[in-house]
Amino acid sequence: MKKILYMAQSANGYIALPDDETPWTDSEWAEYEKKVQEVGNIIIGRRTYDRLTPEGFISIGSPDVVVVTTKDLTPKFPKTHAAHSIEDACAHLSSKGYNECFIGGGSQLNKSALEADLIDEIFLDIEPKIFGKGLPLFAESDINLDLELITIRQTGQNTMQLHWRVLHK
Ligand SMILES: NC(=O)c1ccc[n+]([C@@H]2O[C@H](COP(=O)([O-])OP(=O)(O)OC[C@H]3O[C@@H](n4cnc5c(N)ncnc54)[C@H](OP(=O)(O)O)[C@@H]3O)[C@@H](O)[C@H]2O)c1
After folding, report:
1. Is residue 156 in contact with ligand 1, taking CB distance under 6 Å?
2. Which atom of ligand 1 is nearest to 32's Cα?
């Protein structure tokens, strides 16, 4: 299964403000929604799931949602599954016939996925914002990885998308 990390970030590398707000441009939300709809599933950390609203769930195409958590979860959307690791999340989606999965944050989940060598490609949308403080793309880690650039694309008037392949060691 191809595992794709897709994230929006400020020009200085933050994926959210300290209060968890993500004030992205309309064109960014449209790109993000289109990509989740295309893949049909999303793997997210429990904190990101807590922030997902019913409107947000519908706007991303009511995908299969897999929430990675160490705890029990009361699902709030019809197609929600709880997994205790990213490996289990991928296995669940694989068993449903998917050959691609969309890893959708946040920082802690991204770090876990990176450290487990579970990211094959990264789409990073660089938004026209600078946040003085915030949540980093990856929570702190000792990882040191190399990437290969696949494409650079302008996705909005002021937004750039970088698409990389992770060079697995
Ligand atoms: N810019 C973007 O594209 C984007 C996308 C998504 C989210 N965000 C932002 O990211 C922020 C949330 O990120 P976050 O780092 O605080 O939280 P997070 O990664 O969404 O969730 C963290 C939680 O996920 C679970 N988890 C993570 N890795 C795990 C593992 N390997 N095994 C088991 N459980 C695991 C744990 O849940 P339990 O505590 O339940 O065990 C952990 O507390 C929000 O501000 C959100 O708005 C931004």
Report:
1. no
2. 3
Confidence class for position 154, pLDDT limits 50, 70, 90: very high
Q: What is the pTM of this model?
A: 0.97
Residue range 2-55, pLDDT digits in tens: 999 999 999 999 999 999 999 999 999 999 999 999 999 999 999 999 999 999
Query: Going by CA atoms, what residue is nearest to atom 44 of ligand 1?
Result: 20
What is the CB neighbour count within 10 angstroms for residue 1?
A: 13
d(CA 29, CA 134): 19
Report how far residue 118's alpha carbon sits from residue 115's, in angstroms, rounded to the nearest whole number: 8
- For 139, other C-beta atoms within 10 Å of its C-beta total 16
Q: Is the beta carbon of 40 within 6 A of some atom in ligand 1?
A: no
Q: Determine the distance separating the centroid of ligand 1 and the alpha carbon of 66, expressed in angstroms.
A: 12
Q: Which structural domains are found in the chain, ordered by start?
A: 2-160 (3.40.430.10)
- Atom 5 in ligand 1: which residue has the minimum CA distance? 105
The span from the CA of 103 to the CA of 105, in Å, is 6
* 61 CA → ligand 1 middle, Å: 21
